[in-house]
Prior knowledge:
binds flavin-adenine dinucleotide; five-stranded parallel sheet
Amino acid sequence: MKTAILGAGVSGLSLARFLVEGGVPLGELHLFEAAAEVGGLCRSKTVDGFTYDRAGGHILYSKDAAARDWMISCAGGPDAFVETARQTRIRFGDCWVHYPFENGLCDLPAEVNKECIEGYISAYEARSESGSEAPSDFDAWVRWRFGDGIHAHFMRPYNEKIWKRSLSELGSSWVAGRVPEAPLEDVVKASQGVRTEGYVHQSIFHYPETGGFQAITDGIATAVISQVRLNTPVTQLTRHGEGWRVDGEDFDLVISTLPMDELPRIIEGIPAEVAAAMRELSYNSLSSILLAIDSDEQPDFSWVYMPHEEQGPANRVTYISNYSPGNAPAGGSGLQCEVNWRGDGQAPGEELTGEVIAGLERAGLLTKDQVLFSDRSDEGHAYIVYTHGFEERRRRSIDWLESVGVLPLGRFGRYDYHNSDQCVIAARELAAALLERRSAGGQET
Ligand SMILES: Cc1cc2nc3c(=O)[nH]c(=O)nc-3n(C[C@H](O)[C@H](O)[C@H](O)COP(=O)(O)OP(=O)(O)OC[C@H]3O[C@@H](n4cnc5c(N)ncnc54)[C@H](O)[C@@H]3O)c2cc1C
């Protein structure tokens, strides 16, 4: 069965590899990739010995140990990875606040701590008394869940930096299950100076020793790289009998990891209401800025959240050379800064890097003269934006694609808020279903 896999990020590569591991002849698979290299959002970049991840600092962790171990084994095994205990902070004025914020209240200035804990307790009591359901609006959800103090001091400013719009334009369905609720006693204790340890699950993560996070997708790709057509953007899919024609070439089966919002430009015959639903799926874009630092003396943080405007445009700063010493030459270190912008907007201009450095200097993370050089990578599709009505638009888009036999897969392929391990899990599940279909249809694998 001649199969086209559109996109060679971690989703497309993993699917191809699982199919081959399941016995599908390699020659039946054809991966189309627009970029000059594989890896998509998992790609990394090395400049003068400093390595960073192009779509924000990436770490490997998973609730599914088999998926994580598979990724590690594809990329050289455990010895090729550094294992680190996650250390994250929020920069708040000149305080380092433990993460999550409600577990670090005692790190805040006293009056802010008081405001936050009072708000948290009021919200807790209001929820318990009224038995109210979680509001569907994200701004209301934050107040309902965390109270007005945490809303004002952290959640609103931080989330506005991430989402680049008023929080009331967003729904709350995406946070369900993602933000575990801390017991009230724990938050009260945290406010008094006793933090709950082991609060953050997935506290240990892995990162490749060399090559950045991309070493993982490079490793997965080795088994299928001969079938990847690089620099080959897919521009047209037309129906052809039971299958599809991809830019003039016939295939029995098509799996798409391309951003679903772009498919109306590519796939012929999408009904108008489905095309509208696809186009209205929103996303945010990202600039990742590497700052090469002339010193290896850094705090042992993994990353730091930067919620406030005076800290500059970056929302997160990753201490990328703490992930692996291989990410910086001896005597140096790398800071990787993330700045989001609206997918329907303009990329920030060249002044961005200067603004980021100035913000970090004001926040006390560096001094300008420590920066040896900078490098910037932009990614168009980085964050799914959960505007109201998102679930309905997504469901309608996926249902139509599946009904015509174009199988959507991946972070923007299905608009699933997936990390790379979850992309691998989804690819493993799809491969298993396809392999079963093959054997039921009497095809040899
Ligand atoms: C800021 C940020 C931080 C993250 N942190 C982590 C983390 O710490 N850990 C983690 O595991 N995950 C993390 N992720 C998520 C992870 O990057 C993604 O889940 C994963 O890379 C998505 O893989 P994918 O293959 O589904 O999509 P993509 O990587 O987007 O792959 C799609 C591929 O399709 C190609 N393509 C697009 N259009 C066309 C076309 N017309 N024709 C042909 N090819 C095309 C693209 O070039 C790309 O290679 C993070 C993501 C972001 C944005």
